[in-house]
Amino acid sequence: MTDHVVSVGVDLLAQAVADQAAPVSQVDWRPPLAGTEDDLATVALDPLRGAANADALERVLGVQAVLVDVLPAHEAVGLERGEFLHAGPPIAWDRASGPLRGALMGGAVLEGLVDTPEEAAELFEGGLHVRLEPCHHRRSVGPMAGVVTPSMWMFVLEDPATGARTHCTLNEGLGKVLRYGAYSPEVLTRLRWMGEVLGPLLQQVVRATVAQEAPVDVTAILGQMLQMGDEAHNRNRAGTLMLLRDLAPAMVSSGTDPAQVAEALRFIGGNDHFFLNLAMPACKLALDAGRDVPGSTMVVAMSRNGTDFGIQVSGTGDEWFTGPAQVADGLYLGDYGPDDANPDIGDSAITETAGLGGFAMATAPAIVRFVGGSVPDALATTRRMQEIALGENPRWSIPILEFAGVPTGIDVTRVCRTGILPQINTGMAGRRAGVGQVGAGLVNPPEEIFPKALTRLAALTRERAAATTPS
Amino acid sequence: MTDHVVSVGVDLLAQAVADQAAPVSQVDWRPPLAGTEDDLATVALDPLRGAANADALERVLGVQAVLVDVLPAHEAVGLERGEFLHAGPPIAWDRASGPLRGALMGGAVLEGLVDTPEEAAELFEGGLHVRLEPCHHRRSVGPMAGVVTPSMWMFVLEDPATGARTHCTLNEGLGKVLRYGAYSPEVLTRLRWMGEVLGPLLQQVVRATVAQEAPVDVTAILGQMLQMGDEAHNRNRAGTLMLLRDLAPAMVSSGTDPAQVAEALRFIGGNDHFFLNLAMPACKLALDAGRDVPGSTMVVAMSRNGTDFGIQVSGTGDEWFTGPAQVADGLYLGDYGPDDANPDIGDSAITETAGLGGFAMATAPAIVRFVGGSVPDALATTRRMQEIALGENPRWSIPILEFAGVPTGIDVTRVCRTGILPQINTGMAGRRAGVGQVGAGLVNPPEEIFPKALTRLAALTRERAAATTPS
């Protein structure tokens, strides 16, 4: 808890001190989020909190994510015909945003449940033969709409120390792609090629790397990426190249038709975002290890379905704390503008939850040309995120900040106490189903979800205190 | 010319002003190099100078370097049996340093001129059947010892606008390699594999990219590298990965035995410095376009043979201005220390001459773990190099400096006027023939070569003035 309690913003305070001609260093200090004072005081006194957060953070930092397999979703996470995974907290069709609806419609056609996207809309409105479930509930994450259907191939990541696994689909590229809500014939043709050629080839190649005891070490590649201008959310260029480097020899030796191998190499090499779908499950694998530590105030998931933004917290189990997803502020493709953009969507904020993405922007100044903002902003953002993080990740260091580790472990109490919200950088989907990507930008979670989580943490603290008080 | 003429260093001056309690911003200003005042005054009044430097710089910045072929040196630059190219200004065996001797000895065995490195030493001491020549005199550059023999394969780079070409051998990797002066059996075995497998495969693949009108654009890759933490002298990690990305599909489709293709992919992917041998000739191709502009004070080559450090200047033709090569200050491999290091060697300072390497260190802060120094030093170095450069290269920008172009076009007059010497980062060869690499570090040219070049520029200025003065 802070020693200062004032009811005005820092600008007024600084001005007041300056008016008295006293020296003053202006800092980015604001009062705690309104109405959180009592809960903050309760949680601050929780005897479990310090050790619980240290334990949760240590568990997260100890995870190594290795690429061990590539499997269709029905094998990887047991997805059955008619089941659809999606990004974000739970939601039904009636509240689903345009891009999520578009991706679901395209997914239904891909699975042969219907013949046209239009019929698919009727299918989902009826609701009898389909079932929606968050990716996060199946040890998975999905970028943007995050729609996963049984036939889609998924990367399988594993922590060798525990055998824990997470999953993510293969990245389609940018523009008119399913995860941005597009479902035109070109989108489905690409997905079918990924299902028939790319997925099986990658399975064979990844299994070869495992058999050679040289599996792709995603956690280590992420460490290298941060030295190469990637923040691993909206820049995954170096990561994609390192993945190509690690898989290309086995692809050549796979016995697959060289023309198909060359096509796969061109597809991956032509999509700087390909590695995102490995970065995300690596972050989830790490954060899942920090779940369910009683008393821990550490955020273990931030996620959006295009309508709601939700977080989960270590000390509060599987409960989602949600509020309205915001529209990002950023740069638009072509003639698109703010009116075309859907509110924030995707499980990709798992990267920020693990200290990458917006939290690591200092190491990726070139990203301001993609998501907007300025280079000084990018540096300042990482420093600001240090204020709400429990610690740093020594495996993921930022050279320009003299090799400081990325700020890791968002602390609900620090967010409430400082009013500093996590900074996310993100792609922007068109708000109408079928449009696809319209831009990329910067966005925050809705402020209210952190006090909601804090209230629950405080309630649990009080329950524990009552249970241990001698009667 | 500066308005300030003082005879004391900046520290004393700043202290003196501070003692008088006047506000002072300390700047890195020093008096001109001793004895250069008259020549500086002469060259400053040369009516050609301003336009000549603008012209020379514009020519350099206009060059695009494209990879058009891979050829054995006897085809690429007409090298005959018994001819050896080497890095740096001209030198004979009797003054050659250990690593240059070691590389020449290994090269003689590789060519079958002798059976053992020991016999090779006698061959070079005799001198009858061998001929040494700088790489630079054959439109080529070579890293470290820079030894090229007729059977070694070379990259061929071309500027499509002019058809001008430059060349460089294929990179062997780090450690025990010929260019660092090692000549053990493993070194020669690797060179033979490069000659028999890698060179012919790359020739086939590069010719395929040219036939498909999609040749590797080395200049564009260099632009991307600067956004990915490479400064293109001692960090070429992203560049190597992008080269792999661009060549891998054609390698797969080449019809070559997949086992050999996989081996080549592993060799290139396992050597983060592979792209250096494309960065260097790209820089030379650009700088060669800036040669021979009368009145231009721009440096067009900085190069070292392990004994002498030499520069060539646009306005002074092919003349070398030389002084003793310095020993770098840096980090050592294993148990090696300063006593094991040879003085500065290699044509690779062509990267600094073109604005990369030490001049671009701000964009590659991770390099301080390889060459020494600190992250703030890396940033300060690029800013300091701006003081002696004629301009910036907009194609090669540094994100962390808000996308400023790399400082390009070292101006002899600015070096003499400010005393700021070009900053080079470099590998360090063992001083005894046969040792190989011992470390990497930071080094400067010997100060005296810039006043030497200035004196010649001043003499030419006076000649021109005399020729145009009405008699």
Give the class of chain A from helix and strand content and strand pairing. Answer: alpha+beta
**What's the structural domain tally of chain A?**
3
Tell me the name of the CATH class of the largest domain in chain A: Alpha Beta
CATH architecture of the largest domain in chain A: Alpha-Beta Complex
Strand order of the largest sheet of chain A: 8-7-6-10
CATH topology of the largest domain in chain A: Enterococcus faecalis V583 fold
Task: Give the overall shape of chain A.
Answer: globular
Helical coverage of chain A, percent range:
25-40%
First-residue to last-residue Cα separation of chain A: 30 Å
What's the name of the CATH homologous superfamily of the largest domain in chain A? Enterococcus faecalis V583 domain
Rg estimate of chain A, integer Å: 22 Å
Query: From the structure provided, what is the oligomeric state, counting identical versus distinct chains?
Result: homodimer
Q: Tally of extended strands of chain A?
A: 14
Q: Low-confidence segments of chain A, ≥5 residues, pLDDT <50?
A: 1-26
What does this structure look like?
Two copies of one chain form a homodimer. With 471 residues, chain A is of the alpha+beta class. Chain A has three domains: 1-31, no CATH class; 35-60 and 292-468, v583 domain like (v583 fold), CATH 3.90.1700.10; 62-281, Enterococcus faecalis V583 domain (Enterococcus faecalis V583 fold), CATH 3.90.1710. The first copy, chain A, is 38% helix and 17% strand. Chain A is built from 16 helices and 14 strands. Chain A has a four-stranded antiparallel β-sheet. A three-stranded antiparallel β-sheet of chain A has the order 1-4-5. A three-stranded antiparallel β-sheet of chain A has the order 9-14-13. In chain A, β11 (389-398) and β12 form a beta hairpin. In chain A, α2 crosses α16 and α8 crosses α9. The radius of gyration of chain A is 22 Å and the shape is globular. The first copy, chain A, starts with 9 loop residues before the first helix and ends with a helix. The relative contact order of chain A is 0.16. The model of chain A is unreliable at 1-26 (pLDDT under 50). Chain A binds chain B through residues 224, 227-230, 237-238, 241-242, 244-246, 248-253, 258-259, 261-263, 265-266, 269, 365-366, 368, 374-376, 399-400, 402-403, and chain B through 224, 227-230, 237-238, 241-242, 244-246, 248-253, 258-259, 261-263, 265-266, 269, 365-366, 368, 374-376, 399-400, 402-403.
